[in-house]
Amino acid sequence: MTYFRRILEFAKPYKRFAFLNIICNIFYALFSTLSFIALIPVIRILVNPEERTNEIPVWSGWMGAKDYYVDYFNYNVSQRVAEDEVSALVFICGIVVILFFLKNLFGYLADFFITFLRNGVLRDIRDALYKKILHLPIAYFSEKKKGDTISRITADVNEVQFSFLSILELIVREPLTILFTIIAMLLISPKLTIFVFIFLPVSGYLISLIGKKLKAQSHRAQEENGNFLSIVEETLSSLKIVKGFNVENQFEQKFKKSTNSLNSILNSLVNRQNLASPASEFLGIFVIVVILWFGGNMVLVEGTLDAATFIAFLALSYNILTPAKQISKASYSVKKGNAAAERILDVLSTPSNITDAPNAIDYKEFKNSVEIENINFRYEEDLVLKNFSLSVPKGTTVALVGQSGSGKSTIANLVTRFYDVNEGAIKIDGNDIRHITKRSLRDMLGLVTQDSILFNDTVKNNIALGKIDATEEEIIEALKVANAWEFVRNLPKGLETNIGDSGNKLSGGQKQRLSIARAVLKNPPIMILDEATSALDTESEKLVQLALENMMKNRTSIVIAHRLSTIQKADFIAVMHHGEIVEQGTHDYLLEKDGVYRKLVEMQSFE
């Protein structure tokens, strides 16, 4: 129930709906009980004429209130029967109809108010999860499957709605119905009521045995659901490779293995849950049969209970069965919901190690330089960067080159503070970036990555991502700087053309030029280019290279590249090997030195 309590924290903004729901459920339970109690005097008077009375009852105080109201009701019915039996039947039927109408009216109102609470909580959990996903460090997702994260924000949240939040409908209504019914039963016959409740704990224990494994099975089902969504996500994002290598059958078998596993878990889980309703109903009927035997003995043998009262008692006993059955089903739902809530809260409670320092400043204006001072960094065990130092003065272009695994892209990840250094510091104008707010730091940075990350939206909205209030003229100017306006203006709808999922309606060079235009429009003082031309053909590379040169004019740039065309005009080049700088200087100086850089140039392999 710990997870249940934590999920209920999301219900606090909707407590007014909970309050209204409770009031309506109180009346629902009250009229549900009264509708059965009203049958007692009716049955007595209709079946046994001797029960009719012509004496007006006298109020004798609250201690005798029960007898007074019963006698007063008997008197009214008796008078109506004496005057006109048809009129009496109409009166009696009207009372029953009114009681059941009021019961169902308040039942509907209770559901009406709880709907706002349930859907509000559902929305707020999803919002909280999405916000958390946006703020968690990138390192968190390098260890997680995308499908598992998607499963938590979809399937697990739905499970919480159908399990935990459905309990909110039962948490007042069913217990109150049982409570009022028990009070009525005790007023009718304490002896028979006590006898009934000897058997209820036994049946409750037997029902509880059914649900012991539900939480574990639910957890396995939700994990497998995340696994199967991951396979779908991987397949959709890698269809060209899947088809190109003729591995459709392998992926199909992998998917079937996951769905077969999920099918097996769900069969066991659902069948165990389905057992709850018939088991509770059978045990409930067993209790009714025991009441029939014991109560029938009181009516026929002992004569301590009249037939009309016993019939109403049986009806009241059955009135307990439905809410008891709902509560037993809800207990299984709690076990399923526990597993889903655990997975949701696991994400929400994950601490982010990339946070603003308590004294972090909003730094708006880049003035002098970016300094990387003696940093060490590791992703897991081995050091990726070792005692690495680099200075990038304002207005200069510094290029990082080296073979794959030398740590070039790690520098980009650290400067943008997607990760924090283990030792040393990265400073802007002497300020450690860990003491600058993440928002103001990233406002000063523009990022163009090797993979053109675009969204399933219009050209205009993709370009204006970093400056949502940009005018159409500003967007067009940015596209011109990026050598992209020529092809954009020829698109079917120009700036309003939707470019498809990940920009797949465009070529690689076109996508990369849009990425550059996006960075240009943002107009940051510091630009980071992470292998921005590595995935392009020669013709596209020339256009993109020209766009990059336009963008880097009068701007501080850190360029990570493997192609000579990208870095030969850089003011300073650092050659990296296994996380360390092995050579540094200008392009001409490094060529004359005839070292590692010259070999890389000759190989054209700055990977």
What's the story with the biggest beta sheet? 6 strands, mixed
| CATH third-level topology of the largest domain | ABC transporter transmembrane region fold
The CATH superfamily title of the largest domain: ABC transporter type 1, transmembrane domain
CATH architect. name of the largest domain:
Up-down Bundle
Overall radius of gyration:
37 Å
Features of the shown structure:
single chain; 607 residues; ABC transporter transmembrane region fold; 2 domains; 6-stranded mixed sheet
Question: How would you describe what is shown here?
Answer:
This protein is α/β, with parallel strands linked by helices and 607 residues long. The protein has two domains: 2-348, ABC transporter type 1, transmembrane domain (ABC transporter transmembrane region fold, Up-down Bundle), CATH 1.20.1560; 357-443 and 569-607, P-loop containing nucleotide triphosphate hydrolases (Rossmann fold), CATH 3.40.50. It is 64% helix and 10% strand. It is built from 23 helices and ten strands. It has helices spanning 2-8, 15-37, 39-47, 65-83, 85-135, 138-142, 146-188, 190-210, 214-237, 239-244, 248-274, 276-302, 307-348, 408-415, 438-443, 459-463, 472-481, 485-488, 508-522, 538-552, 564-567, 587-593, 596-603; strands at residues 369-378, 383-393, 397-402, 423-428, 431-432, 445-448, 526-530, 556-560, 572-577, 580-585. Strands 6-7-8-3-9-10 form a six-stranded mixed sheet, with helices on both faces. A hairpin with a 4-residue loop joins strand 1 and strand 2 (383-393). The longest helix is centred in the N-terminal third of the chain and has 51 residues, at 85-135. The radius of gyration is 37 Å and the shape is elongated. The two termini are 53 Å apart. The mean pLDDT is 79. InterPro entries: AAA+_ATPase, ABC1_TM_dom, ABC1_TM_sf, ABC_transporter-like_ATP-bd, ABC_transporter-like_CS, P-loop_NTPase, Type_1_exporter. It is a multi-pass membrane protein. Pfam families: ABC_membrane (PF00664), ABC_tran (PF00005). One of its GO terms (cellular component) is plasma membrane. GO terms for molecular function: ABC-type oligopeptide transporter activity; ATP binding; ATP hydrolysis activity.
